[in-house]
Write a structure and sequence with these properties.
The protein has three helices and 15 strands. By secondary structure, it is α+β, with helices and mostly antiparallel strands. The protein is globular. The relative contact order is 0.23.
Length: 287
């Protein structure tokens, strides 16, 4: 009896634990390499269209690969990280087009850190998922300067044609810590309607956050050529120092796809669940 359940049990466990990551950029390149023209990760289009593009022609101001990556408890991470250069122009990379479907939520996550002792309230950095390279409204998740409070706070910007115009949260950015940023896009592709964008800071990596815990919410009409979709990462930073690090960019149609567990934790979780259900099955069979 117990043996007959085992294949089905393991199949269900693997299926429940495996959430598909549609796009992943871990920045597994050579330390110090220029970001421009690099390819790697998964979910990006083939050929030159899928290479990183640094919009700054000045090589000294182009983004580079940092000497170490970022990590966060309970999150799979590897490789190095991106060090976007202050004063440069945005970097972008095209991934396979992800179409919006009304009622469906897509998730975006990344790690970000700033260690500079000279950090001040004009230092900002963000990651956007865009339909183009800046020609349409696109949610930008990150740290922005709020002139009203003279503080750098977390928020949701718009990397489209109208400029960032952030929606600010009341949560101030804390340098010297690695933060997990998770954004969500809940689609409504009905003509004239807008998408609901939410920002979560350092949420649990095992349970999708309740929408009420979002630290910022914004509405944007993400539309290009009559189709609601996303197909670019855009990264940028500005301020007084080159101390931002960005790592582990992910996009998925499930929360687990942007917060995958480190491999040893995944195995332990599967074994633990398997033993639990096997014990229950065994007890029932011996009654």
């Amino acid at each position: 009896m117990m043996r007959s359940y085992l294949p089905l049990l393991l199949s269900l466990l693997v299926q429940s634990a495996s959430a598909m990551t549609l796009v992943h950029e871990p920045f597994e390149y050579d330390a110090g390499a220029a970001l421009n023209d690099l390819t790697g990760g998964s979910g990006f289009v083939a050929g030159t269209a899928g290479e990183w593009k640094d919009q700054d022609s000045n090589v000294s101001q182009q983004s580079k690969i940092a000497t170490k990556g970022l990590s966060y408890p309970g999150l799979a991470s590897s490789g190095l990280a991106l060090s976007p250069t202050i004063g440069g122009l945005p970097d972008n990379r095209q991934f396979t087009t992800i179409n919006g479907v009304t009622g469906v939520t897509h998730w975006v996550s990344f790690l970000i850190r700033h260690d500079s002792l000279t950090f001040n309230n004009t230092d900002i950095a963000w990651v956007s998922t865009s339909v183009s390279q800046g020609g349409h409204p696109a949610p930008a998740f990150g740290v922005f300067y709020d002139a009203a409070t003279d503080k750098s706070v977390w928020g949701i910007g718009d990397s489209g044609p109208l400029g960032l115009t952030p929606t600010f949260s009341t949560v101030e950015f804390v340098p010297g810590e690695t933060h997990l940023v998770v954004g969500s896009i809940t689609w409504n592709i009905t003509s004239g309607e807008t998408e609901t964008i939410r920002l979560y800071l350092n949420p649990s990596t095992t349970t999708a956050p309740d929408p009420s815990t979002a630290i910022a919410i914004r509405s944007l009409n993400i539309q290009a050529l009559s189709a609601n979709r996303i197909r670019y990462f855009i990264t940028d930073s500005a301020g007084t120092s080159d101390s931002w690090l960005i790592d582990e960019l992910r996009v998925s149609d499930s929360y687990g796809g942007v917060t995958p567990l480190p491999e040893p934790q995944t195995v332990t979780l599967l074994l633990g669940c398997g033993l639990y259900f096997l014990r229950r099955t065994y007890k029932k069979s011996t009654r």
